[in-house]
Amino acid sequence: MVRAFVLLAPGGPAPCRVLYARTFGTPPGAGPGGPRQRLRRKEQLLVVARQVASQCQLLQASLGRPSSPQLPQLPDEPVSLQDAPGGVFQMSPGDPFPERVTVVWLSVLALAFALVCEPQENLSLAEITLRRLAPRLLLSLRLLGPGADVLLRPDAADGLLDRLLPHGQMLFLNERFLQAMDRELGLKVSR
Amino acid sequence: MSPCNDLVLSCDEIQDTKLLSLVSSVLLAQGSRGEVAAVGQRVVQGLERRLPEGQSARFLLPVLANVISLSPGSLTEEQTNVVSKKLADWLRYASIQQGMAQPSGGFFSSPRTKQPAPITEVDGAVATDFFTVLSVAQHYTQDQWLNVQAFSMLRNWLLCYGGKELDTLNPGASAGGDSSGTPLVPVPATPGRLLPPRERLRDKAFAYCQRLVEQSTRRPLKKEDGDLQKACLIEAVTIMDIICKQDSSYVCRAVSCLKILHSRICGDATYARALLPIAQLFLNHSKQAAVDSDAIYKHLFSDIPALLFHNPSLAFEFVQFCKDNSQLFTDSSSIFRQSFPNLFKFLAWNSPALISEFVDLLPFLLDPGTATEIFHLLLDLPCLTAALDIQLRAAALPVSEKAGADPAGKPATCLEAFHHPLYRSMFQYLLRSRAAPEDAPDSLVPLRQLLGSLAGSPRVVQCAETVPVLLELFFRVVAEFADGSLINQLVVLLLQRSDQLYDIPAFKEDVYRVLGSNLAMLCGLRPALVVELSTEILEFSGAVSNIQSKEAIFTHMAWAVGEFLSVSHDKRCTVEQITRFFETLEAVLFEITQLRPQASTPSCAPRAISVLMATLTKLAARSQDLIPRVSMFLSKMRTFVQSPAVTSVYCEEDLEEILIRATELMNLLKMPSVAQFVFTPPVASTRFQKEVNDSLPLALRMVTQLLEPAAGSMPV
To answer: What is the mean pLDDT of chain B?
Structure first.
């Protein structure tokens, strides 16, 4: 199961920002509920985001790419995920979640997407899920300028996650199933 | 939780499955066990009964999956039986014909009903067996969606509730985790008699996985389906492994199916990630099936890392596999342990992502047989990164260019050098797949120099940054098991290698720092080595250039000599030896404390001067004829410290510190017997005695106060 999904702006020189995050259920008995729990969850996701940002920057450096990628010239130009850098890393128990988690991430333009998964999760499927989430989420964001000034539509993001990652469950969808799902959602994803 | 009762959400009254799913996500976020259980009950209720028209169970399954992952004890055995039965049906009996398109209502919608077409495989062939996630259709029916959902949650369900005992207190631990040794008596499915729900689900799940294994090697029409095929394959093998753990009667079938699969995919690099769960299944069960799986492990550890080190996901999963099976590495002759050079290729290429994994893995790779080879490997890790880079680039060259190198001349670029006879064996050694301590070439120095042109590459620099961490860990682990001869060997190698490091300045600084402090640690573990390795140590300490270029190592070496070169640590320590060390170090100190430093005089850290003075004093305390020489030397320090040429090189506080130290040492030598006691305490085997040694500066100060009760502040 996926514990959380995070959409972040890695920054570069600027500090990284969490633009949108969604957790899928809270393990019971995790401590006092309410605002403290929510704050703790926010902090935990921020730690994940910072780690993703630093991994992303290090990978970009080792691939020899500039840290601030260029936006596509036309706003409707399909974003190519072919060479999108991505990776996997693990976070130990206690730092920041009580149990071990594996984070799978993908970087597109000036943004990064991350799935926080349970330890023995199918990482191939997680990567596929991210590669499907990314273009569909980008469709619902308006890129206002270079960098990560995006206009989020959280309802659209929520709706998308409810279909592609319902309750944190990753789905084994082949291309035809995905098309059927896009039809249901009313999305026109270029293929 | 909520401010007033009207705002309390409950899932009890909700009939609409989509709404139930949405409400559940709020309820499950509360972190309350009671809420989770309530949601679980409601969802199972929804699945049990026939749903109202238009509602689909499709939205309920993910909720259930989340419930069991958050709180596995939420369902009763009866409920899990109900769900297991449904899952088995959805997996096995989904419709094998394509769904109908929703009527579009356009001009051209015709009233005639078309025959539903059969589902196809990903390669376009018509499907001849039951529906799975790899079945293709234009439109899908509800039960086909349920098939997808059921498979997607199958692994977690089996882990939670598939085992032989349902322990509602702690189901995660017992279910499927411990039944590998005791085979279940399989309940044969006689015709007309259904298996119990759990066993039936296992049966259908296994058949599903076998079908997926067959489907996953077809050539897909759409390229993206290829990625899903691999993910399905990995999931199918993992589920088979779980089923085998829960019911060992499946082992034979699984093993024979996967042996065939392995032979089909082992040559295809795109299927490499699937080799890991296959190997895991064989590791878990091949003994029971009496099957020889060594070829599988050999291929996995010898070939895959060398070919695919640059694939970050494979690298991560491979290292995870090693960590999960760390007991494999305890047998030093096994293929797993012998392949450690291959494993380090993953780290060399993907350093930032894998460093913390390797910190966990390294202790399992270290033993007396591998320690020295791993020491060299760690110091050469950035070279390995550079060599891998060249290997990749050389492989990408067209064939015509590969043969272009002129064997007689010197290679102009690293790329040319890769095939050049001068360098080829060095490259081969660095890029070896197996441990080979005897095959080490005499020196990799030419290769390191050649690779110097890549020292600025970001990937190499990132790798270099991980080395000090691993070195520190290396010494900590080795200290626990090293015997005398290994410690001696390591010290000799340490001093040798300090000259032979890849030329990245920050890297060398950090490595010297780690090597220096660990040198002192090793000498502390085995003080006799100062006597046994006196030749090497004298050679190192006598080279004045070392004090400048490798200050950390030099300082710790000098300190160790002062600490441990005494009869109390090793009976073989003679007066001649003490004198020889004394003269060597005195010459160095003389060289660096000249009153008029010339351009060729090395400048060095004040700490080095202090340590040298202290060491000389300690040696003099043990061989008292040397005392006059030291005293005279120390008395000259005042002049040294005040000389104008020197004050321009060192800062004021440092010079004052040097002077204070020199004075204290001189005073101490005025009372030779006290000095002897202070500097040669009984061999410190207890912590208290070690603390006494560590507080030497304080002790010196106090003695000075006693001798010179003059103006000056009392020591704090």
So the answer is: 86
